[in-house]
Amino acid sequence: MKDYLQRMGRSLMLPVSVLPAAALLVGVGNWILRLPGGVAQSIGNFLAFAGNGLLGQLALLFAVGLALGMVQKKEAGAVALAAVVAYELPVNLLAPKNIAALMNIKLSAVNPAFDALVTNNVLLGIISGLLAAAMYNRFSEVRLPAALAFFSGKRSVPIITAVLMLLVSVVLLLVWPPVYTGLVTFAKLISGLGWVGAGLYGFFNRMLIPTGLHHALNSVFWFNIAGINDIGNYWNSTGVKGVTGMYQAGFFPIMMFGLPAGAYAIYRQARPAQKKRVGSLMLAAGIAAFFTGVTEPLEFSFMFVAWPLYVIHAILMGLSLAIAAFFHWTSGFTFSGGLVDYILSYSMPLANKPYMLLVQGVIFAILYYSIFTFAIKKFNLMTPGRDPKDDDDAANDVQVGKAATVGGEDKYLRTARMVWSALGGDAAAKDNLTYLYNCTTRLRYKMTDTSLADVDALKKTPGVMGVNVLDDHQIHIVIGPDVQFVADNVEKIYNGELSSKLENPLSADEVKAVDETPAGKEENFFAVANGSLLHLEHVQDETFASKMMGDGFAIEPTDDDILAPIDAEVTMVSPTKHAIGLRTESGLEILVHMGINTVELNGEPFDIKVAVGDKIKHGDLLATMDIAAVKAAGKLATTMVIFMGLSEQAQVKVDDEEIFDGIAGNYVGRVIF
């Protein structure tokens, strides 16, 4: 379920990225509408209509975005059509006028719940997108008898989705009205609780946003459902100063200050490889929240991938409304709680000490930043930019020269084709592979049955350093720092973008002979940290202990400084900061791997002191590793130095008698290659 919610949250980034621009158009348009003159009215309406045209289709955008993001195949553009079909069916079927016709009643007698359901309700968008993706994953390759062949494969998905959405519509027809009515009743009950009721309203207002049921609460407090009419009375100046506006004022500190500060915390905690992308999204979403009060781009960015953070946000929203109501600080909005509405409402007769909302906003900005930062780090929440699976630009961290070829074929593509063949080839690999992912050095694949993989063939594949079958459904194929290039090619073969056929079918022995370099060069290497020398076979990680990735040595460090083991150039820094790649002038590739399974710590205990392209000498500081934090997380701090891609003739000689515990930078041994 956790993985599913994280995929769902990542999928929402596509439609969410559209919203900040739309919100700014609406905000600027509404501000211009307050200016005198016909030209201003025309320009304001033009901008506002354009922005509302997108915001008014938020649910549909969610449906399409979720469907595209949740499919397991990248060529699944047809799923977007299925998502539109899934969304439009209940929107039209359950529209109030159609409900009136179905039940043979007057339109005025239709439960208002149905209008809230079909009017840009994100719940319908989410259901539609998830259902369309599930049906595509299940039926996009189904084959029907010849007479029905036209409807085979992808064409069957919209039809199946529509049928299932009919059933969902029947369920909503029966369930939605009593749920909606119950919430309206609940809202009426808490409306008599004063500032406590305002706080409860703020909390549930945020918590119900994913379902669309927050409209039920809003209708009670903002409009004339239960005699409150907070928005209407505020702008008509017919209420009580210090009271009217109490269900609006507390939104301003959160939307203008709190959430933008939370966005900054999310950016600060993003992984280095993703900071640029996440920064753009958070900046745009933060500006939209501050100026216009449109917070959906921010909220949906972490609502599912880090739901505990969203609960914290809802609690803080309730606290903000309660504080403003308790001190009788009031203000109001016509659109939402952003700067534009704050300025417009500031001089209204019922505004009471609205400047105090700015003071409250600064306090909440500090709270949001501090609490978000603590929660993200403490509980390792997968906010945008924190998930290693999203390191799409990881390859940019590696210096890439002209690709080597074997038999006229790119060596990475050749390795990918041979891996594909060993996993079952065109006949079985596509059906057997259920999840394709890679870390810094390994292909990490999930399969329906790992016994179908030819492990012996994988081990003999040029470019493959080792294979680790974890269980019946998971297999790790060790490639090394160049894993990204092999992974990309395997994925292209999987998607049908590249042929799986070897262009020059040399034997594995012949290919391996091409890659091997006769022994003759020699490099000395040195201790990377204070601590005890450990031979690789004693390392508590099978991948390193079996020397799948290459020969080398390890250190059990006693302090945090990690030094360079050799004179070299930095070629790679892992997005999770736990591994650094080096290359000597003689062509020797080295991997310095800090800790065991520390990739799961998302870079928290590490501080990298070098960058790709830096020229370093042995003994230079590469990084610091917070050993206490690593151990507190239940990981080992053992640091491995691996010499990668060595030929069978190469030798790694560790001179035990030359190593002295407690002295970093001491001579350890030499590699002959």
Automatic annotation (TrEMBL):
Cell compartments where the protein resides: Cell membrane
Active-site residues annotated for this sequence: 439 (phosphocysteine intermediate)
Originating organism: Weissella cibaria
GO BP annotations listed: N-acetylglucosamine transport; phosphoenolpyruvate-dependent sugar phosphotransferase system
Protein name in the entry: PTS N-acetylglucosamine transporter subunit IIABC
Mode of membrane association: Multi-pass membrane protein
Occurrences of domain PTS EIIA type-1 (ranges): 541-645
CC per GO annotation: organelle inner membrane; plasma membrane
Domain of life of the organism encoding this protein: Bacteria
InterPro entries per the UniProt record, alphabetical: Dup_hybrid_motif, Glu_permease_IIB, PTrfase_EIIB_Cys, PTS_EIIA_1_perm, PTS_EIIC, PTS_EIIC_1, PTS_Glucose_EIICBA, PTS_IIB_1
Lineage, uppermost ranks: Bacteria, Bacillati, Bacillota, Bacilli, Lactobacillales
The keyword Calcium appears for this protein: no
SUPFAM superfamilies: Duplicated hybrid motif (SSF51261), Glucose permease domain IIB (SSF55604)
Gene Ontology MF terms in the entry: kinase activity; N-acetylglucosamine transmembrane transporter activity; protein-N(PI)-phosphohistidine-sugar phosphotransferase activity; protein-phosphocysteine-sugar phosphotransferase activity
Location of the PTS EIIC type-1 domain: 1-388
Alphabetized UniProt keyword annotations: Cell membrane, Kinase, Membrane, Phosphotransferase system, Sugar transport, Transferase, Transmembrane, Transmembrane helix, Transport
Transmembrane intervals: 12-33, 45-69, 76-96, 116-136, 157-176, 182-204, 216-235, 247-266, 278-295, 307-326, 357-376
Domain PTS EIIB type-1: start-end pairs: 417-500
Entry annotated with the keyword Transmembrane helix: yes
Pfam families: PTS_EIIA_1, PTS_EIIC
CDD domains associated with the record: PTS_IIB_glc (cd00212)
